[in-house]
Amino acid sequence: AQSVSQHNHHVILSEAASLELGCNYSYGGTVNLFWYVQYPGQHLQLLLKYFSGDPLVKGIKGFEAEFIKSKFSFNLRKPSVQWSDTAEYFCAVNPVNNAGNMLTFGGGTRLMVKP
Amino acid sequence: NAGVTQTPKFQVLKTGQSMTLQCAQDMNHEYMSWYRQDPGMGLRLIHYSVGAGITDQGEVPNGYNVSRSTTEDFPLRLLSAAPSQTSVYFCASSNPGLYPGEQYFGPGTRLTVT
What we know:
The structure holds two protein chains of two kinds. Helix content of chain A is 0%, strand content 51%.
């Protein structure tokens, strides 16, 4: 079975700092990769996704992620965070041809941005 | 489009009680699923359905039942609530095709079992 690891459980940054959140997965086959975000009191929203092609993908609100196949990683980055980026971030994996589009999630990283 | 809706938003149960968490979607999605969210563990799949009349177990199915009689609805039943089922429950829907795995989530139900 696949698993997803997010190494940073809590991150605290000041506004304008750069962000990188780590995500590694274990699965031998081809995967689709996602980052979801959960703002305080809200439901999960898709931040960005990778299916194929350019391993550097751009999402909403200035976020981007890079898929490095050799490292089984899909790290999330943002050059300059804002207070409104305070949220919990989840990396998720969907094995290609997986029945039902099911996702395996990492444990989440709680980001707090200080104004 | 309401998207994915869940009721109730909050619920408190006593140990041994049963209840049904409701989930509905109006996007005509084939796939629906239930996840539970616990601190530090991300979301874990409870049950999922790939179409009306078809359901299957996920990673943590024990203590939960589901059925899918229509495309729109996918209720989750707790048969005999236990404190270990205290969690936030999310329903999600998606379609096969161009972007498999891209799921749309409901607002969640926060359940406390005392």
